[in-house]
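Figure caption, in words: inputs first, then the predicted bound structure.
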Amino acid sequence: MTAKAAIDLTGGRLADDFARPITYLRISVTDKCNLRCVYCMPEGGLAWLSRDEILSYEEIVTLVRAAASVGVRSIRLSGGEPLVRRNIDRLIAAIAAIDGIDDIALSTNGLLLDEQLEALIAAGLRRVNISLDTLHEERFASIARRPGLDRVLAGIDAAIARGLYPVKINCVVMRDRNDDELVEFAELTRTRPVHVRFIEVMPVHENLDLQRAAYVSADEMLARIGEIAHLRPVPGPSGNGPARYFAFDGALGTIGVISPLSHDYCERCNRVRLTADGRLRLCLFGDQHIDLRSPLRAGATQDELVALLRNAMHIKPERHHLQLGEASSRMRAFSEIGG
Ligand code: SAM
Ligand code: SF4
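Bound structure (iron/sulfur cluster present):
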């Protein structure tokens, strides 16, 4: 009997009340960030969590082990900015060694990627999403409120050169700030094996005015890109994402769009999120969550953690009800909720 079969027979896989298997865990390893993107964080930063509020690597690994024992297969490390947390490669190596985990990905703003890439790959990282909203330095400094475009581009080049697959570029599209770069970004996919994903800007408390003014729908993005050349629908590169993918004929990469406000993805939702302070959030746009840190620190066994995960499945909502220009009553900065 294989290890995987044993896991299935003894544990049974996590599934929510709508029969959706939960196989994907997104982990925010820190709330802190070295950028201040206008759509994500206030310029002055947030009321940062203290060190002891944040889960240790050992605590994260314990939770991942419990989740893997009931069917979680994919892990994404995110933040805040995950690469600002010290020795993240050690966490990756520890997660990679967990039975049942067969996919570890990272979402990063790319500033520290080039310098950390070898250690990350040695630890077991195989794919990466890099956020980049503009290809122009002055704009970068105004959108991210810090300089650093050259370092992000170096990170993207290094990830491609070292054979990470897929390399996805996440671009939040904002009217009158960077929507005139849609075509420039799309053109990158002709000659480079990158998967550029355009994201509709989502509402969080701090950015409601920006979100209302800057929203560009995914359909408009596709129409504008489609004006320069035919876009063929294609299957996406490997991954669990909510994107729809297209490609120019003969291109090395693909173009994706992510419409977080559309409910289409909810039906296929396979994911839950762990915040940096140890709450399991059942939906990005909802307040439903359970605290895992307290039981963990009180010495919960793996069986007890698994029971908590199973119970949490009952409060995963069928879909979110967020609308353009609204924010959930308690929704705060995206980074804080572990995007
Ligand atoms: N710091 C890392 C980064 O920027 O990739 C990881 C965390 S960040 C919160 C994850 C993704 O969420 C990024 O691609 C970012 O662009 C996106 N994001 C953050 N706030 C958003 C918003 N209000 N609307 C749409 N996407 C957002
Ligand atoms: Fe930092 Fe990522 Fe938020 Fe930008 S989107 S402020 S890089 S966490």
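Residues 33, 35-37, 40-41, 79-81, 109, 131, 335 surround iron/sulfur cluster (ligand 2) (CB under 6 Å).
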